[in-house]
Amino acid sequence: MGKLSFSRKSLGIPYALFLLLFVAAPLLVLIYYAFTNGQGQFTLANLTGFFTNPNTLGTLCYSFAIAVTTTAVCLLLAYPTAYILAKSKLKAKSVIVMIFIMPMWINFSLRITALKEILTLIEGNLAYYPFANAVIGMTYDFLPFMILPIYNTIVKLDESLLEAARDLGANETEAFLKVTLPLSVPGIVSGIAMVFLPAMTNYVVLDMLYNSTYIMGSLIGSYFAAYNWNGGSMIALILLAIICLFTLLTRGAEEEENPRGGALL
Amino acid sequence: MIKKVVKGFVIIFILLFLYLPILILAVYSFTDATQLGAIRGFSLHNYVTLFTTPELRNMIFGTIVLAFFSAAIATVLGTMGAIGSFYSGKHVSSAISTVNQIPVVNADVVTGFSICILLVVVFGISKDTFVPLVVGHVTLCAPFVFLSVVPKLKQMDPSIYEAALDLGAAPAEALRKVVIPQIFPGILSGFALAVTLSLDDYFVATYTKPATFDTISTYVVNATKGAQTTIKTALWALSTVIFLVVVLFVVLMNMQANKEAAERAGV
What we know:
- Chain A has about 260 residues and is an all-alpha fold.
- Chain A has helices at about 1-10, 15-35, 45-50, 55-85, 95-100, 110-125, 130-155, 160-165, 170-185, 185-200, 205-210, 215-225, 230-250, 260.
- Chain A has a single domain (about 30-260), classed as MetI-like fold.
- Chain A has 14 helices and no strands.
- At the A-B interface, helix 1, helix 2, helix 4, helix 5 and helix 6 of A face helix 1, helix 3, helix 4, helix 5 and helix 6 of B.
């Protein structure tokens, strides 16, 4: 038996090596570059530089503002949608949900191109409302990622809990506020994680909508374009720290399944 | 009654928000128009440009080849990793799952940038070899294959594998004939997910691709900044084609699911 189980275990070796080489090692190299200068000497200049430069700090705040607003807008639009879909008694429910998820499979750059044409038609010049356009673009891009996890939680809710609430005298609003809403928190948290982090870093959406300079991801891009590996690594590391912090915060409440994976149903 | 109207209104509003831009562009892709506004004559010239311009054809073909190639590697690696880690000890298994989670939660910008630093800057591998690009896409996709295979392994009845061994199958044979068929749905959805992730990727590609190669995403992002209207409107045609392919795919998948449901009901 010892020999047999060994053969199954050993199947994992290539993947373990792969993860070591292409996931762990790049991060170590990133840390090394972030704390050294161009000559390979240890320095904290990249770190202090980030927190003393008004441009980088401003970018951090601006991308945070965009991400928070986008997440809030997505939540406001997605919750009612997910709720209505989950509660509907239609037979073809799964088909309708599929229709809401389908945009995820269309290349995002082409969808943003489409949105850009529409916004240009409405606003005339996209430079007038950079912040609003950023939020609209991101919402357009990420909304399905918010709808799906919330839908999945609500649709699994035990209907008898609601009946119990009504039997005990709760009206519809009370039953919703005290039963459905608290129980859908895991889905909400999952959705927030799916939208907030990309909204902080996905600078292409902004770039395509004519406003590329104020978001965290684009900072990496600018250092990359200038061949400044050390500065870029520090920004990447700071982003990673934000992501880790956010993931730890949301972990407890999150849905078990992976939303990006769950998208495929 | 009023409730129903409000509900319908919400659903329609969200659907319009999600689909109107794509549909409007689809309509305009069949015209001479170079920007939205008054519709002029019907024309297929965008589609002709799309399928006859070598630059566009190569870009589409390259994106598809890259997606299937990296997804295939990611599927083999991720599946083997999932099986290996599932049968390994607690510590090894949780170590693999933890590291596997990093690319999943990490921003694609950071993944792409860090792989570029390691392979291109530290190891000096030229981007023109396509090695950094393929490695980047496999890194992006394999963790998701891993995640879609693991639940299937957990659902599996372990005694079937042991029964196969008792009946004289070699471990490799038992794996191939017993385990793989049972986790196959997970492998398949992992592969499909890997393909869509690779097709949609911009960030990893932009940091690791050869200068002369473009994926649909990198090409479109650059093209929207340029002023070339023939390319711009040809991309409207591309967006329409992709939209139709996705719709077709969803319809087929749905028919398949219905058929399976009917068969199950029949049994």
